[in-house]
Every structure is written in C-alpha cells, then in structure tokens.
C-alpha cells in the first residue's frame, strides 16, 4: 500500500539496515573503487505539500568506511585521507530543497569533511513509499553528487610512473535511502 503525497508530511529517521551511503573514486586512472560507510544516523522532515519546507541531516562515522580491502580501509582512516581519529564524523545538513518534477528533487546542504564545510548539491529521485509489514510508512530516495576531495582537505596522492596519479580527485557520493516515518 502507498500513501498520497500529502500524507508523507512528517519526521523520518533513516533505516540503516536498508540505506546505503556509498562512494566511487578513480584508482590509478584506469578503474573505480567503490565503498560505503556502515555507521550513520539521519533524520528528515518531509513536507509533502511544500517540499521546499523539507530538511534533513546525516552524521556518518568516518571510521566505518569499507571498500572491501582492509589495508586500503586502514589507510583511508589515516590523516592521508579522512583522519578518523581526529574527525570521527562527516556531516551533511540541508539548506535548500527544490522540487524539479514529480519525482526529482535538488537538495543543497553543507557537507563537512575533516573540519572543512562546503555547499554540495545532491540530485535525488523519489522512488516511492510503502507501508511495511510492521505498519511503518517508508519512503525511498536515490541520489548522487560529485565532489572534489581536495576541496575538503583530502589531498594525499602518489604519482604514477607513466603519468597521472594513484587516486582521482573527483568522488561520486551515492545515497540509497529508506526512511521510516515517526509517530
């Protein structure tokens, strides 16, 4: 069962068991490395009638980074990259929500990585809503944004013998969100 847009208005929490916050970065200029963060919390207020009045925030635990290769993950947690001991959280807080179509939204907010805050715009697609077997109203959103890691103070790299660098500057952030409406 789905509900009408006007019934979506309310406060939501991200369901970590059904939400993925991931990324893709270029490696050695020839392939992509994919990863995700496994520990995070997020809340949102959705306004079904006036989406511009919606807002949200996500707090990601930096140390939960996982690319499937423990040695690489350990390096990503060091000061060369995310410096998880000094900066345990990556945060995103919305500053503007724009409805582009019935299912497309542009969400702008402040992304903070390593104590550097920059505005980032994420293009989201509303993928629908459903009442789960436990009576919870869920909404789904999928979004991506491309950032420059150097703009957030993540500058480590190594030159390749044939030219180029080991780690690309552009990082694609991926959000596959399942959020549960709160009573």
From TrEMBL:
<dbReference type="InterPro" id="IPR036761">
    <property type="entry name" value="TTHA0802/YceI-like_sf"/>
</dbReference>
<dbReference type="Pfam" id="PF04264">
    <property type="entry name" value="YceI"/>
</dbReference>
<protein>
    <submittedName>
        <fullName>Polyisoprenoid-binding protein</fullName>
    </submittedName>
</protein>
<comment type="similarity">
    <text>Belongs to the UPF0312 family.</text>
</comment>
<dbReference type="InterPro" id="IPR007372">
    <property type="entry name" value="Lipid/polyisoprenoid-bd_YceI"/>
</dbReference>
<feature type="domain" description="Lipid/polyisoprenoid-binding YceI-like">
    <location>
        <begin position="11"/>
        <end position="180"/>
    </location>
</feature>
